[in-house]
Give the backbone structure.
Amino acid sequence: MLLAQSRFWLPPDISTHGSSVDQLINVTHWFMGVLFVGWGAFFVYCLVRFRARPGHAADPRPIPAKTSKYAEIGVAIFEAVLLIGFSMPAWAQVKYQFPAEDKALTVRMTAEQFAWNFHYSGADGVWGRTDPKLIDPGNPIGLDLADPHSADDVVTVNNLHIPVHQPIIVQLSSKDVIHSFWIPVLRVKQDVIPGMSIPVWFEARETGEYDISCAQLCGNNHYKMRGRVMIKPADEFAKWLESEKVSRPLQPADQEFEL
Amino acid sequence: MSAAAAHAPHDHASPHGHAPSFWRHYVFSVDHKVIGVQYAITGLIFLFVGFCLMMVMRWQLAYPGQPVPLIGKLLASDWLGAAITDKQTGVLLPEGYNAFGAMHGTIMVFMAIVPLVVGGFGNFVVPLQIGAPDMAFPRLNMLSYWCYLPGGLLMSASFFLPGGAAQSGWTSYAPLAVISPGQTVWLFSMVLLITSSLLGSINFIVTIVQLRARGLTFMRLPFFVWAQFVTGFLLLLAFPPLEAAAVMQLMDRLAGTSFFMPEGLVISGKLAEWTGGGSPLLWQHLFWFLAHPEVYVLILPAMGIVAEVIANNTRKPLWGYRSMVYSAIFLGFMSFVVWAHHMFMTGMGTKLSAFFQTTTMIISIPSVIILTALVISLWGGSIRFNAPMLFATAFLPMFAIGGLTGLPLALTTSDIHLHDTYYVIGHFHYVVAPGTIFGIFAGIYYWYPKVTGRMMNETLGKIHFWPTFLCMNGIFLPMLFQGLVGLSRRTYDATVYEAGQLVQGMHVGISWAAWTLAVAQIPFIINFFISLRSGRKVAENPWEATTLEWAAPSPPPHGNFVTEPVVYRDPYDYSPPGRSIDFLPQNKPQEA
Amino acid sequence: MKRDTIRFLAAATAGCWLAAAAASAGGPMGTATIKGTVQLKAPPAAAMAIKMDADPFCNQVNAGKVVSPQGKMVFSDGTLPYAFVWIKSGITGKYDPPADPLVINQEGCMYKPHVAGMVCGQSILIKNSDDTNHNIHSQPKKNPVFNFSQPKKDMTRTLTGNDTFTRPEVMVKIKCDVHPWMSAYVGVVEHPFFAVSAQGGKYEIKNVPGGKYKLGIWHEEWGTLPDVEIEVADGATAEHVFAYEKKTAAAAPREVGVQDLGR
Amino acid sequence: MSADAIPYTVKPHPVTGVPNPKFGIWLFLASEVMLFGALFSSYVLLRVTADSWPHGYDAGRLNWKLAALNTIVLITSSVTMVMAWASLMLHDLRKGRIYLLLTFLLAGVFLVVKYFEYGAKFEHHIYPATDPFFAVYFTLTGLHGLHVVGGMIAIGYLMGPGARLWRTDPEHYANRVECTGLYWHFVDLVWIFLFPMLYLI
């Protein structure tokens, strides 16, 4: 579509479901455009033709405006189409038809002021025990390193690494306030609400690196709550997952220490 | 009917003859006209304050991290409750940006627009248009102003109290609002402002129902009165839930209850003390149950003003007056069942979302009807393009854009991308800024002669209109594209994001448009004040209008009408067929 | 919510305290020295190095480095850094806060110093040496809470009077909400007799007036040890070796009792 | 603006059949319904979504007998309020004022009882923050208590200085009593909802 070319229109869509979102946005905007132009033309025409001038008097008789009635009915019908034809089915599909658990990669995300903490279960597919008591600077979600399941877990802050061409499910939860998990290029947006765990799903069609943004005002540094989604080929992702395992013993502090 | 008015139209004496003291007359007045003016002036001042906050924010948005010119250091002074800018550099701080943002929204909605359109125009014009000597409850009317003013002042004072002003947006979502500084004062001021609106709305409804002049049936009411009537009901029924919500949020902050606070929050690494397991979404439901009708509170009266001005300056009756009235009423009803379309991204189920996007689609129809009726009213008219008419006509396309851009936001699926982006900001500002505010300007130019007995200067009016019109679009049109590109709203520094870097240029343009808009208001301010002294003196009906307010002297005396008006015809009997004159006032008998 | 109230209380009391301090001349300084080392007689705690890729700037300034959480650091000789040692009781005189402020610098997305002590009422200078936004959030129990941002490099803010810490409190945690791994601990004491253990776990408290004192210690990871009776004469030097066998209860102010974040 | 200039301040409007104040008070009550309605629905929502809800009557934390007494007190006060208006209709100011006084006293009794209820809670260290139930309990009863105080002020004014109006304009005075009565019945009604919702179920 013509609009899609402009860099000041929608960002690239690399998701499998996003086309339905874009389609609706584009169709709606064409509809709006037509409505506004047609309506505006009539408006301007009236302003010019019926401007006060010598020898011109107003005609108080109401015009039988059939056209306007038809126009209004037309608008109503088109809105109904947008609603029932596009929006409702797409919404049901995007938000509620989740991919099969075994096909998908599930990641846990815990938002806090002002960071996204991602937790991968690793090769064994089981998440290690987490306990806030264990939270320390190197361990943002308090992963229990004593738990055998933790050994192959991966924890990242703000960086969501995912394989391309595989459905991803992200379990969203928040430590403190309401955030909103938004990946524009994947057409994913979901409020993250404390006390609730809300899943979202998506599948990337292309590799690349893009922004994750917080769409809900969450405090002083809301604007700084920017993450990155890194979409890799499956094998690269596997490599990465292997290399990022939590079991990284520390060196003695002799060199590192400074007061 | 006031005895005083009968014998001394122009002497502002109380019915008992003796002139009231300065205080009774101008400060604690019970005269709807004085109160109306009080509301309007206070509202305009707050409008200016809210605009100033935004102009500072626009600097940060256009030039992130650059010291705010002139006042940069001032905003870090110790007498502020919390520093807005950095003391050394004078750079606007994120917390300062959030505080300004929250206060801009709150001030504009609750302390500027509503008091202007309802408190100001409503108070002054409604009793006149229905031929009443005053509002039904003059003392209540005064009380409502004296709840509004302290509320507004307290809200403004919060900048100087410990913790500074509220920082959680005008929506004050819990839990953020509950843990943020300054919110307590915000809530207390809101309770005052809400009380003021409640008292006002009761007064309006009773006045319109009980005090209409003889012969003024409901279907003969000017559309402006209808708009105020519906607005009255919206305020009456929508505000109490917010009051309840405010009380609960206060309890959460001060008494440690957890209405809106889930259990086990870890705030900045520390366990929070709320253990009741409350619901953050409860706040949003209560808030939007108010705040959506509130949108129509903002727009309906403006539509009313525009209808008056258009009817008057096309010199012909409004087209489809009745359908407009029914639409307004329907709008009022529907506005109570669309609120959750602000919450589509909270994880709403298919059924609920289906319901709310359907109701939202339905509510768009009456707006379309009103707008269409107003445009078709132009057909066959003899349009005078004076200052009020310029703003009134400009209102139509601006409101059209505002309404149309609401469409993709109302559809859940497209809302996935557009929710909480600059698209939303562009959308609702098109409705309230070039929309309602144009309506307000139209109203000021239109009724100024009625209030002061003098005209405002036409030339200055036109000089005011054109740049204002251009700047408004220069500000809000780019925002729609910033939103489509994918820029989150309430972003202190857009350049943090790739999308933001792409549209940073627009931010610069918008800011300059905003500052130019400020300059463009100077002719208006000059006009407003010099016309008080040197404006052309006029008789009661300078616009040759038909509605009742023009039957009263300008300015109307205490008690409004010299002789009790009686209504013989529909509100907009312009260019009656087969007659020499081009207008017949409502109170003129046929044979006249 | 609580923030405002605490601020008020602190302000009030601080006011009085400062007045008192001003009235009394600075307390007596002596010539005695208390020193020693802090040792760990247990296997180091399991830990992960800090990942800084959350913020590209931090990642780049620390490129190639392994950054360990300071609390977990242990020297090769089995001694501990970042232990805060101070005289808990026995000091009689009243001591004015020193003129120059306690400087907390944000550099390489870490707080420098990580552990420090200050005298009640001493001003705090907070500095951002990084080209990224930092947020400084104090989490005291008895002292004023502050929570502000420094979005630009070289921004500084000096906290004085009612805004600084004026009541004795060991320790006050300071945190950056933008970079969750950034934390610093400040021990607020009524006198200047404290020290932080450095290379080889060594600490040294100088200019102590001769006398009989109780010595306290705090460590972010390993917690506190029972107070130590120690006596020292003017001009003399007393030594004490602190040894941690196991993690003790009253460790750093840290969140407890929250439900499993991973659900 | 003195009232006399404004039509229908005292006399009923020919079409609506009510004078302005009565119409106004009904609208005010409508908004009050929305206020308490919002609070009640919040209560319901919190309660149905909670995994486990602590009831007021758990371990006798609430004294339903006292509350029942209060219910009776309020209902009686509604009756005396009506009596006050009725006797004014019969042009008997003295009786009317006595009934107003009775209403005032009964309202006082209600508040005294409430005071002891609250006191008992605080003694057992029960505060709004204790659990979600008491958050609701204190908020709702507290707000209702404020309404009672407001009513007492109005009634107190009417039986005291406000009664002077009777000499100049008895009908106007009777109207005021009637409007205050309407408000008072509403306050009573709210309590009749509160009592079972907080104490019994």
Remarks:
- The longest strand of chain C covers residues 32-40.
- Chains C and D do not touch (no CB pair under 8 Å).
